[in-house]
Amino acid sequence: MGKAELCSDSARLRPLAGCSIDDTPNITTGVVELGISQNEQQSISDLVGQYKALPGALLPLLHAIQKQIGHVPDAAVPIIANGLNLSRAEVHGVISFYHDFKTTPVGRHTVQICRAEACQSMGSRALEAHAKQTLGIDYGETTTDGSVTLEPVYCLGNCACSPSVRINDDVFARVDAQRFDELVSGLSAEEGVAK
Amino acid sequence: MIFYIPQDTTALALGSEAVARALQTAGIEPVRNGSRGLFWLEPLLEVTTDQGRIAFGPVAAKDIPSIIDALASDPASHVLYQGEVAEIPYLKSQQRLTYARAGLGDPVCLDNYKSLNGFKGLKKALQMTAQQIVDQVKDSGLRGRGGAAFPAGIKWQTVHDAGKDGCQKYIVCNADEGDSGTFADRLVMEADPYQLIEGMIIAGLAVGADQGYIYLRSEYPLAHKLLNIAIDRAVQANFLGENIQGCGKTFHLEVRLGAGAYICGEETSLLESLEGKRGMVRAKPPLPAIEGLFGMPTVVNNVLTLAAISTILAEGAATYQNFGMGRSRGTLAIQLAGNIKCGGLIELAFGVTLREVVEDYGQGTYSGRPIRAIQVGGPLGAFLPESQWDTPMDYEAFAAIKAMIGHGGIVVFDDTADMAAQARFAMEFCVVESCGKCTPCRIGSVRGVEVIDRIVANENRDNNLILLHELCDTMEFGSLCAMGGMTPYPVRSALAHFPQDFLLQEAAGASLQDTAGASLQDTAGAASQETAAQGEN
């Protein structure tokens, strides 16, 4: 890709889903129809300011936004594009390329089941089916109470003790259906305590 | 007595945190070491005693009181007693260079690293010219451990010679260890991160780069945390930053997190991702050594390659070169995973056979059933039937049987594995993870899933088989990188060695259950006679 493309004129691009050409963010007045609060807009702008001088800033910036807000809202795209001197298409293209970046809110806990070969050899296909049935959701979905989002993952590097499940930042080894149920019910129990 | 309880991902996944808490409850503050990679024994509690450093494993929190009692009387009487750690055959028989320090102490403790020969290689490198360092790497015979096995010294020489004097150059560590069955990079980063940092500083000195990046996959949050702590401490101790140890040279190091894309383990898409773009493969040439990160000359090496550098400089090229066979020099980090009784990290000189690894170290399957297939080298590696298990682990020997060693990951499947399902998964994985830049990979994989489905459904089977082989040819020879280029390896090997799972004509009469565990030749032979007539119908 040539450098010229990096600075392509965003006005020539067709609008992306969820944001029209005209909705240039106006931070001072707050743009309610963008679907995020003024605070969120402000923190996105702050993060853009913080990261824009970093070489290859886009991935670290997106991680930072997602950490702060929980996902990367569509409304962040024009703010990022302006700040990093990229087209909105380029920003949208990066967000949609990587599995990690979410454009809508996710559950309070993310549960990932490893689908890679080592885990398959130890029964992860059955575990996946069990998890979907128990939680009543498919991959990419969130339980109705908003507590758990289920996702596939391709390898957690815990292949000597498969099958593996990651819950938020913790990895669990040798997870069978019973262990899965214990782990997931543990999540609701924790929430119960928190309340 | 000092107590050690590991805090690497696998030990934690098996409950080492609860063991640490149980020790604290008993008034003992344990050292949180990295794992030695004997994952079948994790959580492995180690204790320094008069009898040496002894071990108990696998330990649960409830075992702590009885272990403390046993330590006061007769440690060997405890049911979990494993004897002296260094004498455990699984560990003792290994030839550890890169993992010599793994598990010995707190991985982010600089004093611990220094006391175990840490920075010995860097100190030597600081006395050498850039060309002398490059020559050491060339003489060692080290080949890239990421899978492609390109000679590291040649790559470094190219970057050393590239660009004008004073032009910006980069060292990029590929820590996007995405292959299933691999955890060697993770173990280095979690158990001995300074070794990687040291290797990268040496690489910077060798090629004239003052900036390094570790591109780490986001699936490794613990490695991320430990690397950042280690880098901070290395900066404070002036091993990183300006004027390293007063030598006048500068090297900055930063960890960058990927975002869940397998393709970013491919070096050119990794560079695109580091630049903040979609991880799309670049056509080569230009090589990254000439035009790499931000268009500048760049060394892109795997974690294990860079980790090996500190050993090569510390112990000398000749010492490293002495290990191995043929053109595969030094040691290989073999990762034993999947359906295996004793899974873990085994560092050995090249040349050990797959059978030795799986039977002697692995002790067979976890399920106790016979082994059916072994996949080596990640999701793009071939499935090997028993007839190929005596192949020595050497880059050329594996290439000769259309397989690859890759990053050294071994995944074992028992006789319940459905190889047609695995072949389909290989294509499906390519659908999910293709960067999409080239058509053979992007669309070929989608069609591959469909064609395998039709074959298994016995729909126009003969023609679909021809189509699948042609599709594999197109992907192998027409793809820009190994993602599409090697997806046919697991597919073709499954077809060639486990035809009964695809219910091919020769074996259509044999049910999956009947063939499981039976000799493949016998099964195929008997089935082909039985079904010859059916095939004509």
From TrEMBL, chain A:
It comes from the Bacteria. Transmembrane segments: none annotated. Keywords: Iron, Iron-sulfur, Metal-binding. The keyword Iron-sulfur applies. It holds the Pfam family 2Fe-2S_thioredx. The keyword Disulfide bond does not apply. This is Formate dehydrogenase subunit gamma. It comes from SAR92 clade bacterium H455.
UniProtKB/TrEMBL annotation, chain B:
Its cofactor is FMN. It comes from the Bacteria. Keywords: 4Fe-4S, Iron, Iron-sulfur, Metal-binding. This is NADH-quinone oxidoreductase subunit F. InterPro entries: NADH-UbQ_OxRdtase_51kDa_CS, Nuo51_FMN-bd, Nuo51_FMN-bd_sf, Nuop51_4Fe4S-bd, Nuop51_4Fe4S-bd_sf. PANTHER family: NADH-QUINONE OXIDOREDUCTASE SUBUNIT F. It comes from SAR92 clade bacterium H455. Residues 420-465 form the NADH-ubiquinone oxidoreductase 51kDa subunit iron-sulphur binding domain. SMART domains: NADH_4Fe-4S (SM00928). The lineage of its organism: Bacteria, Pseudomonadati, Pseudomonadota, Gammaproteobacteria, Cellvibrionales. SUPFAM superfamilies: Nqo1 FMN-binding domain-like, Nqo1 middle domain-like, Nqo1C-terminal domain-like. Pfam families: Complex1_51K, NADH_4Fe-4S. Belongs to the complex I 51 kDa subunit family.
